[in-house]
Amino acid sequence: MSQQDIIRAWKNAEFRSSLSEAERAMMPAHPGGTLELADSELDRGYGRSSGLRIKSTIKAGPTVPTH
Description:
Number of helices: 4
Distance between the termini: 27 Å
Helix content: 40-55%
Radius of gyration: 16 Å
């Protein structure tokens, strides 16, 4: 896999999901790392007074506009 394909896969979830399992297994970790929060950590920050659950995804790197 080329370096350009690796970067594209880091930035583009649709492209990443089109890769085979073997290709995804060969992908190096994103240099920005990952962030996972437990439900208890989310509750502390926002609470759940409305009963609505929000799932957030934080992406590192510049955003590319989609048209």
